[in-house]
């Protein structure tokens, strides 16, 4: 499988990627649990069919200590008993935030209120930002057919 466009080396897209990546790195200081960050990025990537990002976030989460059981169950989180109520609220927010075109009203008030029960304003800001950033990366990878499977933990620093 060949990538249609290497947006990491193309001078125009490389500038854009640099800024999107910087936005993602700004979230590293957030008080949002790192596991929640990875689970949300993984779920959005699954929804968007971004194999490259699924590869990244499963490997990074596993490297950070996430269990294989939880990683395998992210796609079926509603039926899984291995996630906390807070993680479930974050995953639901990630799903609705990723599928905004599928619902006339975008993210429902109920989903937002549920997330707000578990996360403070700064953590909600981090969640929203993670969802936006991962969706941007998913679209770059899917549009350019970036293959999955060769990512090495820490590769993008």
TrEMBL record:
InterPro entries: AhpD-like, AhpD_core, CMD-like
Highest rank taxon of the organism: Bacteria
Carboxymuconolactone decarboxylase-like domain segment(s): 21-96
SUPFAM superfamilies: AhpD-like (SSF69118)
Entry protein name: Carboxymuconolactone decarboxylase family protein
């Amino acid at each position: 499988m060949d990538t249609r466009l290497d947006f990491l080396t193309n001078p125009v897209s490389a500038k854009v990627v640099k800024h999107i990546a910087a936005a993602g790195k700004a979230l590293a200081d957030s008080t949002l649990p790192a596991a929640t960050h990875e689970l949300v990025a993984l779920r959005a990537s699954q929804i968007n069919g971004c194999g490259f990002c699924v590869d990244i976030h499963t490997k990074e989460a596993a490297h950070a200590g996430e269990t294989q059981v939880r990683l395998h169950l992210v796609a079926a989180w509603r039926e899984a008993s291995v996630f906390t109520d807070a993680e479930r609220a974050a995953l639901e927010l990630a799903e609705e935030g990723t599928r905004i075109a599928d619902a006339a009203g975008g993210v429902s008030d109920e989903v937002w209120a549920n997330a707000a029960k578990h996360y403070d304003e700064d953590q909600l800001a981090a969640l929203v930002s993670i969802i936006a950033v991962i969706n941007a990366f998913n679209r770059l990878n899917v549009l350019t057919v970036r293959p999955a499977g060769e990512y090495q933990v820490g590769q993008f620093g």
